[in-house]
């Protein structure tokens, strides 16, 4: 089991539980995570969902080394089909769960890690949290769920993509991507307190408030942009395949090894 699921005080806490690999996402973890979101959405005793990561880091993103079994011959069609389901569709489904959700982020949140925290309605980050998406190094213009422009604004989004450098928790707070920054030792307590407070609000009112904000973003083009940029993302995989025969680069995997 790569996911822990607990319910208390009307709050469902979903914990990524692969700390030995910085909560890197293999297919099993993502499938279990989707099942946990579905379970929380259906439970009438749950009013708020909290997503957190066990250990030093929230998530180092997709598991690039031994986390997924690809056949010897990889095609763009295989990559597209797999990523459409586990990355794009999962993230959009979590975003639209009709209950408030909060991500508690500590340490590194790299590329695929953004697919986990960005669909949440609120983000509480520890002071040591770093958010990054260095996939331009792979010849790809950004991770599959391309929320960058909406979360960071266009210029900051371009900066982190062009340079590959991480955004600090304080920077993320300044541009509105993070709601609150707290000391590392207070992250779980502060997130739990916020979740329990929200859980005292009328569930239907919370549902309607979330729907109003999400629909406003969709009217502005969020949903269509996420879908269209996903197709652009796949051309990056096609480029990588044409040069290397693989959709990933070894040095990115090596970078993640250092986070263990």
From TrEMBL:
Quick one: signal sequence residues?
none
InterPro entries this protein is in? ClpP/crotonase-like_dom_sf (IPR029045), Enoyl-CoA_hydra/iso (IPR001753)
The Gene Ontology terms for molecular function here are: catalytic activity
Write down the superkingdom of origin.
Answer: Bacteria
SUPFAM superfamilies in UniProt:
ClpP/crotonase
The cross-references to Gene3D superfamilies, in alphabetical order and at most eight, read:
2-enoyl-CoA Hydratase, Chain A, domain 1 (3.90.226.10)
Please give the Pfam families that the UniProt record associates with this protein.
ECH_1
Q: Which family does it belong to?
A: Belongs to the enoyl-CoA hydratase/isomerase family.
This chain's protein is named Putative enoyl-CoA hydratase EchA13
């Amino acid at each position: 089991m790569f996911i822990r699921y607990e319910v208390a005080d009307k709050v469902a806490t979903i914990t990524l539980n692969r700390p030995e690999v910085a909560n890197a996402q293999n297919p099993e973890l993502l499938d279990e995570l989707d099942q946990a979101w579905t379970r929380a959405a259906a439970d009438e005793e749950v009013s708020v969902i909290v997503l957190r990561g066990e250990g030093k880091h929230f998530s180092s993103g997709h598991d690039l080394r031994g986390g997924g079994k690809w056949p010897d011959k990889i095609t763009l069609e295989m990559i597209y089909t797999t990523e459409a389901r586990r990355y794009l569709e999962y993230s959009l489904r979590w975003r639209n769960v009709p209950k408030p959700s909060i991500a508690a982020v500590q340490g590194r949140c790299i590329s695929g890690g953004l697919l986990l925290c960005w669909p949440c309605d609120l983000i509480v980050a520890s002071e040591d949290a770093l958010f990054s998406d260095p996939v331009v190094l792979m010849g790809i213009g950004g991770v599959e769920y391309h929320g960058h422009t909406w979360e960071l604004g266009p210029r900051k989004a371009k900066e982190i993509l062009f340079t590959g450098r991480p955004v600090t928790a304080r920077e993320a707070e300044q541009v509105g991507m993070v709601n609150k920054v707290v000391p590392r030792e207070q992250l779980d307590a502060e997130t739990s307190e916020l979740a329990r407070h929200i859980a005292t609000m009328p569930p239907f009112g919370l549902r309607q408030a979330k729907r109003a904000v999400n629909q406003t973003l969709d009217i502005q083009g969020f949903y269509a942009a996420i879908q269209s940029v996903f197709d652009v993302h796949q051309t990056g995989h096609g480029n990588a395949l044409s040069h290397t025969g693989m959709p990933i680069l070894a040095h990115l995997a090596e970078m993640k090894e250092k986070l263990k």
